[in-house]
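Per reviewer request, we include the raw input and output of the structure prediction for the construct analysed in the revised manuscript.
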Amino acid sequence: MSKKTLWMLAIVLAVLSAAVWWNGRRAGAPDGAAAAASGRLLPGVDMATVRAIALESAAATTRLAQVDGVWCVAEKDNYPVDLRRLRELIQALDETENAQIADESAERLAEYGLAAEGAEAPLRIALEHAAGTTTLSLGKTRAPRQTEAYWGPPPGRYVRVDAGPVRLIKDDVPGAEADPAQWWDRALLDIDPADVRQVEVASEGESVAIERGEDGAFALADAAEGEEVQTAAAERTFAALRGLRAEDILALEEAEAAFADAATYAATTDDATYRIEIGAAQADRGNGRPVRIAATGAVPAATAKKLAGRAFLIPPYLADALAVKRDALARKAEAPPAEPAPEENAPEAAPTVEEESPSPAPPPVPDPAVPAEADQGEAAAP
């Protein structure tokens, strides 16, 4: 076979491969699908006007809505929502674009996991906004088979907006979850330790109050004679409200018995006071401890709505920083060492007399009757 023939066969093979790849990428889409796939997935939704979001799956339902200007989870007694997670969801929906049309018809919705009923019902996200309600259905994810790695349709997830065509988006929608337990905000308080001016703790019948001066130094507000603050322990106690998080929201009836002999922690800032009751450890819940928090003063609306009339379960390591005993924060000042007392009935020591060192002997006095050796030598000379 000549080189010319080989080159011709190679060119034909390349053209056929390109045609197969292109048809696979189109995934059976009708003419004009490429143009229809461009742009945002939800062009009719102004995300800035969204006032409620309902997420529904076959197993759970969650409704997120604004209540008195605060985003809340309806299934958690209108407890404030995790705003970070909500922002991620809205941003992902707003930025999803260039969805490829996979099927114009609605005859095979079950194959894409988009049938309204059945074991593989989609996750539906209903957005209530200024122009109405838009529902996005999330169906099955698509992972290309090994033989489609180069010429098959791309990976992604099948979706459908309202009653429109089946589309394939490249990236999944992060944070799309219908379980209410995934949406409530577990962060209770996040107070900078530098903003705390005073902390008062009480536990097992003892209490102690510590103040922070303008110079940042700690001092006991009710110090007994000879007591001083333990600085390292005070720093940990003043930082106890930074990153205070809950593991669960408790029913008030369930938690009431745990507060019979509660320890207390009260922190005061320039603008607010936070008083916390710390209940007994719950052995059946990983030794977590229930807490109730009363906040007064200039408290953010979301924080006030979060704390009012609720009880939470917090992990034991966070509870230990709140329920501190007095002897962990205050100690007796170290006294200077005392001189040893004299022993009783001990014989008195004789007074010490300093011995005088002997004076050096004076030089001998020459005898005038004995002439010096030098004079004798001069007399003997002729």
